[in-house]
Amino acid sequence: MKWLPDNWKPKVVAVDIDGTLTDEKKRINPNVIEALSRLEENGIPVILATGNVRAITYGLWRFLNLSGPICCENGGVLWHPDWGETKYRADGSEAKMAAQWLATQIDGLNWQGIETNQWRESEWCLSPNEDLERIEKLIASSEWSHLSVVKTGFAIHLMEPQLSKGSGLQIILKRIGLTAEDLLCVGDAPNDLSMFEIAHWSVAVGGAFAYVAEAADVVSPFMHGETIQPLVEAILE
């Protein structure tokens, strides 16, 4: 299959984690580790662009020995050790209050949400099993109507409207001296659409949400993390 456009190679690659590097049980294929290492060895930095929290993203970044910055919580938290500071683009307090309010409106809704909320710095996440349609309607008619409600396979994210992976990556690219024309991104879920929109080239993994696959430049015939090794081979050919 044709992974890349003619006469173009990325200078930087941004990858989602959950559902992209990992399978539906959050396991990483060992081939992913080797493939991302090969990109780095060939001078192509890898950016982890994820809805997950910094604590988890940093752990993966460190153990994969990556050099690119990390874009956590859908662009809400941006970090690289060379920067000397973390860039926070929201504080998450409004999203948390909105979650607490939703629990007064929907019987049985657990506002405390998913386990990683204990480390969340810029947004708040509810369980993916909560009633998305009801949450969207309630938020739209509330004092938090400006908040975005985005469902992935692992959570329902409540976040401020300026937050997205795409806007976070644009800040990162400027900081590392590259542009969106240099970027290839890989993802699977609705929160990846904003990076598909800005990147020169986008790849949806097998198992991606149907409308995310439709928005990608290429859809992988391989499920989840099995996509990474053949993609990297095509980049380094």
Could you explain how this protein is built, in words?
The chain is 33% helix and 19% strand. The chain contains eight helices and eleven strands. The chain has two domains: 151 residues, HAD superfamily/HAD-like (Rossmann fold, 3-Layer(aba) Sandwich); 67 residues, Hypothetical Protein Ta0175, Chain: A, domain 2. The strands form two sheets. It has an eight-stranded mixed β-sheet, sandwiched between helices. The chain has 237 residues and is α/β, with parallel strands linked by helices.
Find the CATH superfamily of the largest domain.
HAD superfamily/HAD-like
* CATH class wording of the largest domain: Alpha Beta
Count of helical segments? 8
Tell me the overall shape: globular
Tell me how many strands there are: 11
With strands numbered from the N-terminus, the spatial order across the biggest sheet is 5-4-3-2-1-9-10-11
Helix share bin? 25-40%
Tell me the fraction of residues in β-strands, as a range: 15-25%
| Overall number of structural domains | 2
Give the low-confidence spans. none
**Mean pLDDT score, rounded?**
97
Helix/strand/pairing class, anyone? alpha/beta
Please describe the biggest sheet, giving its number of strands, its sense, and whether it closes into a barrel.
8 strands, mixed
